[in-house]
Amino acid sequence: MNYLIFRNDGIGDLIVSTPLINEIKKNDPNSKVYLITSDRNDEFAELLLNHIVDHKFRLRSKPTLSELIGLFFKLIKISFNYTIVLKPKNYNYWLAFLLFPKTKLGVQIVSDYKEGIKHRPSAFLSKILLNYYEIIDYSENYTKDSNIHHYQHYLNIFNKFISNHQIDSNKIYRYFRPVFENEFSHINEYFKNNRITLIHLDEKWERISWNTKNYIDLIVKIKEKTNNTVIVTEGIRSTYINDEVKNYLMLESTSVAELNKSSSVNNIYYIQTPSIKLITYLVYLSNLVVEPHGSLAHIASMFNKKTIDLIYPEYINYLKKWKPRTDKYSQISISDFEKTINEINEVIDIFNC
After folding, report:
1. Which of the listed CATH numbers 3.40.50.980, 3.40.50.2000, 3.30.70.360, 3.40.50.300 matches domain 182-351?
2. Which label site among 2, 49, 108, 135 has the fewest CB atoms less than 10 Å from its CB?
3. 108-150 pLDDT, tens digit each
4. Do residues 58 and 80 make contact, with C-beta atoms less than 8 angstroms apart?
């Protein structure tokens, strides 16, 4: 059977959808899974091709009508048994409906607004466009369903409509080791037998009211606490924080093209704007991942890595639904620097890193 899954949003969104895709493959070994991706997660989706995804189509975050029509004419050539809309955009629901699959599935988001409770899509459209929809309730300031992880919502779709057998959701989150590891064997060889802490210093740190010295101290203190080799990575763009950290570390080149080494602090390395493939491999090599909540929390979950997931206080309830799915993780609310670093140190002790 052919399955079309709409996941045209972020990398983390795609990763938390992989348990559903994995179960489809296990339940129907001859299945073909087609994925609608976005500019944000298409590069990561490439890593899933020929493993749990068979084909993908990229759709921009704000597609034009002509782009939607073009995608429709590509998809209409394929006879879909199931369409599953996980990104709640009206054009996704209509596109899925107009492909005339045998079964139309999706999610409906319930949220608080000033005007009251709203549904995406509306209850009326959901009944018209979908045979079944899983309700994800964000109401009451994200507390209503905060104990239900997003991937569990997606598995409910599988349990209720695709298969009648129940799944032990704790056993299926991780699904593959990086098949591209030979591509980075030189990095593995360089860090052979080293315990690695990966600290992700991306643009989300700009939201935090720390001074530049705090970010430098964060890196140095974590290194001292773990006694591990530290690799610092950037996000999709370099920020003033990255520039200040690089200046402090006084970077110099190494025998590995991707790696720069600090000449001011022993055993700290820096990688500028790594590709998704490279950062996924670095997470795979690491013993501990420290990151402001984002895609790395979910990449770490794929490899069951110890994770310190730093979250913004105003998003605590919301991010409970997106917490890392690792055996050892901690979500720490970012506050003033001293309080945050003390909490990080306590977690490192518990993790025995």
Report:
1. 3.40.50.2000
2. 49
3. 999 887 777 888 888 888 889 999 999 999 988 888 888 899 9
4. no
SS3 state at 119: strand
- Counts of helices then strands in the chain (DSSP H, E): 14, 15
Residue type, 298: H
Closest CA to 26 of 124, 140, 143, 171: 171
**Which tens digit of pLDDT belongs to each residue from 54-73?**
999 999 989 999 999 999 99
Q: What is the C-alpha to C-alpha distance for residues 108 and 71, in angstroms, rounded to an integer?
A: 23
Q: Output DSSP code: residue 158.
A: I
Identify whether the C-beta of residue 82 lies closer than 8 Å to the C-beta of residue 103: yes
241 pLDDT tier (thresholds 50, 70, 90): very high
User: Which tokens go with 296?
Assistant: 């790395």
- Coil, helix or strand for 130? coil
Separation between Cα atoms, residue 188 and residue 51, nearest integer Å = 23
CA distance 296 to 154: 20
Angle between helices 276-285 and 295-302 (to 10 degrees): 50
Calculate mean pLDDT across residues 284-288: 94
CB count in 10 Å sphere of residue 293: 23
Residue 133 half-sphere exposure toward CB, CA atoms < 13 A? 25
pLDDT at 202 (0 to 100): 93
CA distances from 75 to 71, 100, 161, 162 (A): 6, 11, 23, 21
Q: What is the location of CATH 3.40.50.2000 in the chain? A: 2-171, 182-351
Give 15-46 pLDDT, tens digit per residue: 999 999 988 998 899 999 999 999 999 999 99
Task: Choose which CATH entry (3.40.50.720, 3.40.50.10580, 3.40.50.300, 3.40.50.2000) describes domain 2-171.
Answer: 3.40.50.2000
